[in-house]
Amino acid sequence: MPRPPGHGPDYQVRRQKIIDTAAELFARQGYAATSVNDLGRAVGLAKGALYYYIGSKENLLIEIQSRVMSPLLSRAREIVALDADPLVRLRLLSESLLTTIFHRLDHIWVYEHDYRSLTGEALHALLSQRAEFERLVRGLLTEAVERGAFRAMPPRLATLQFLNLHNHTYQWAKPGGRWDAAQLSREYCDTLLRGFGAPGAVLPDLEEKAAAFKRERPDLPLDPEAEWQIDPPAA
After folding, report:
1. DSSP output for the chain
2. Verdict on whether the full-model pTM lies above 0.70
């Protein structure tokens, strides 16, 4: 029996294209100012056909948010679970977050500016995802304090400093420009290390360890949209 049209590969490809186009429009014009007719003209579909793919305008906003948070949160959980120094995991998480920002600038813009337009369960789900990501970051920072690498500080404030240093990058980052995700992560984490470091603590060479991780485990890419191979590489 053939699959229903809504589950076919052509449907999914077209639907994703609509979501990406909507992200571009919302980032440029604003979610509230962009009508369904605007989006229909941009993707070449009448309103009825457009609703077949997106369900509703709010659902489109949910999909844009999910395109950012679902892979990022999944990758963050995997990085946090690695058997590595918490500072190294912070460095890897930093680059993973920045990679998402560079790859999905329009989606990030919408994510940061228009999430309050969501309501009910959709808003609750998004806020829960944001809270979980913050908990993962806070957990690594707390572990670094407990191991004596970072000085004692309020975990919430330390988490906000990490997030503030990263999350506004979308406002000025340019793919293919002067800096890429890895370069910015190196600079951001160096700033954090110098500011958070405990007096007299011997801190690891994060760049050497991050480079070693990427070199030795190419099956575990930092890009949240790439798949991880759960089995270790053959010896």
Report:
1. -PPPGGGSHHHHHHHHHHHHHHHHHHHHH-TTT--HHHHHHHHT--HHHHHHHHSSHHHHHHHHHHHHHHHHHHHHHHHHTSSS-HHHHHHHHHHHHHHHHHHTHHHHHHHHHHGGG--HHHHHHHHHHHHHHHHHHHHHHHHHHHTTSB----HHHHHHHHHHHHHGGGGT--TTSS--HHHHHHHHHHHHHHHHBPTT-----HHHHHHHHHHH-TTS-S-TTSPPPSSPPP-
2. yes
